[in-house]
Each structure stands twice: as C-alpha cells, then as structure tokens.
Amino acid sequence: MNKLNAVFCAVAFASLLSACQSTSEPRQVASETNVPAQENQNTLEIFEASKASYEDWLAKMDESKSQRIYDDDLVDDLFDAWDEAVDVYEDFASNPEKATKDYSMFSDGTYAETFDKRLTKVAELYEELQTLKATADSLLAEAMVEMAYLNEIGADELYASRYKRLSSDYRKLFAYVADNDIDDAQVKQAVFLENAKKLEIAVVLKTHVAPLKDQITLLRREGFKSVAPISFTKSEASLEQAVAAVNANPRDIESINIELAAVQFEIDHVKHIGQEVKRFRNVDDGKFEPLILELENRLHAIAQAMDGLDLRNQTMQQQALVLEERAQMRSTALTEKPDVDPQLAKLMSELDKVQSDLSVSQQEKESLTAQVTTLEAQNSKNEGLIDDLKMVIDTIKPKEDNSAAKVGAESLGGL
Known about the structure:
- By secondary structure, the protein is mostly helical.
- Among the domains are: 43-138; 287-332, no CATH class.
- Helix content is 83%, strand content 0%.
- The longest helix has 63 residues, at 2-64.
- Residues 1-36, 357-362 and 399-415 have low confidence and may be disordered.
C-alpha cells in the first residue's frame, strides 16, 4: 500500500513538473523572437539617418561645383573627401541591414558609423570653402559686379582677346584672397576695375556708336562732306558728343540714347540737304548749301511757331507737306469760327461790366484787357503763319515741266 502511494506521488510530481515547463517556453520564444524585430527597427532608423545625410550633402556638393573660382584645390579636396564617403554609402545603400554591420575586420565601426566619420571630413572642408567664399565676396564685390556686367553686355563675343586677359586677372584676385594676400588683392582689384571699365566703354561704343560712325563714313565716301560741308560737320560734332557721353558714363543708357538720337537726326539731315544741293548741279555746291539751309530755317521757324516741331531730318518737300496739312487744319478752324469769337465776346462783355463797376480794381481791368489783346494777337499770328507757309511752299515746290536749274533760280528768287 505504501509502495502504491509512493507511485501515485511520483506520477503527480512528474505531471506538475511537465505543466510548469509547457507554460514558460512560449514566453521565452516570444521574447527571443522580439529581439530581431527590435534590432531591425534600430537598423532601419540608422539607415534612414544615413540616407538623409547623404541627400543633404549631395545638394551641398552640387552647389559647390560652381565655387571653384574661390579655390580650385580646396574644391578638389572637398570632392575627394565626398567620393570616399560615397564609397561607403554605396555599400549599404541597397541593403539597409548592412548599416549596422562591421565595415571591415580592420575597422571598429559599422558602415553607418564609417560613413558619418567621412562626412565629418567633408563638412570641415565645406565650411572652410564657405568661409573663404564669404571673405572673397566681401572683398571683391566690385570686381564681381563688373565682371557680371561685362558678361551681360557680351564683351566676350565682341572683344574675345581682351576679355580673356581680363578674365585671367579676375581669377587671380580670388587666388590672392585664398592665399590670404589681402593687400595684393585690393591693389590688383583697382587695376582690374580700371581695365574692365575701358572694355565696358569699348563694348558700348562698338554696339551703339560704331553703326552711326559707319553711316557718316559712308556719307563722306559718297561726297556729302564736299556737297554739304556745314551739315556734315554738324553730324561729326554730334557723333563726338555721343562718344563723350559714353566715356563719361557707359551705363547712363538714357543720356546715351538721347545723344544717339541726335546723331541719327543730323545724319538724316545731311542726307536730305545733300540731295537738295545735288539737284542744282549748275550752281556751285559750296555756295548753294547756305541758301538751302536758309530756306530750311524758314520752314523750321514756321514749324516751331506752329506746333514746336523739328522736321529738319526730313526732306524739305516732306516738311512742306506736313506743315501744309497742319496749316489747312488751322485755316479750317479759323473759317469755322463765328465772326466774333465767343471767348473774345465773353471777355469784352466782362470788360464792359468791369469798366461800369467803379468798385472793381484797376488790376482786374488790366488783366482782362491783356487777355483780349492776347487772343487778338494769336488770331493774327495764325493767319500770318499760314500766309508765310504758303509762300515758302510755293518757293520750294518744283514745277513739273521745268529743269532742276530753273527750280534753283526760282528758289533763289523767292529768298
């Protein structure tokens, strides 16, 4: 009986022990299976951090490509350091799990850690470059602005050799700054700016003034200097004024354009005066130009008095047509006015009223009287201008059946 009890006790103890073992195993397994999951999460976070660093520095390196002018050797060192960092990143970029693996048996760090260490070197060189850039940008600001403007106006295309020499001097300025030769950089910058301004002036002259000079040269070859020497000399003087404006300030575009327009005006004037003179070959050219100019001056005086116009860059026939048209408009306006100008009548009425009112001051009377006088004078002036214009037009209009010599004789008679 005692043996049987002992057997039952042994079986019960064994069953109890077996139950305890079956409940602790799943927890251990669960705990063991959670370890790789946690490690994978940490690895992914490390990989994502490395990826973000790579993308950030990739943008900075792309920006640094345009900064070679500050120090070419420093930029080379920067890109060498970047290449070494990229070599490591490429090894685990497509396999995130390698980020936390040992980089090599000779290294005590992981791929990610080695990548970060090499990026530290990149960062040091990058900061050195940015510090140098800030110094050069401040010290060489004037030279940088001047060089940018030369590129803008196409100096490299118009004067390739001069631009190439100047560009070489420009790069040397940055080399002085990189070597910390600040005094030399400042002295050389002053020389650079002087030469750059000369090139700038040359570009503006060639672009804007040279075409006008070519026109005057062509007129000289075609004999206009001998045919119309007075007008030709004025065109040359106008060209010299344009050149002086460019030399004074090649960036004062507004003033330069005014001078250029004046030169073109005088060139057109030479052309039509010369043509007028050539129409009268039987009269000595040198003596006839003053007569042509006097006739034109009469037209010009009428144009100025009528509407403040300057038509002297057009032929006298064209001037006459314009003035004739405007005169007809004025004549029509005068004929359409009533016998008594309403404005004049109104002023006369007011004047009578003022004169009958003893309390009105003498000053008011005189003011109204002056207005009446001005209107009467203006009407007389308009009628006089129209008469003068008709006389000049009759003088310069060529008769259809007469020769050029006869026209010249009639014009002289009209003067």
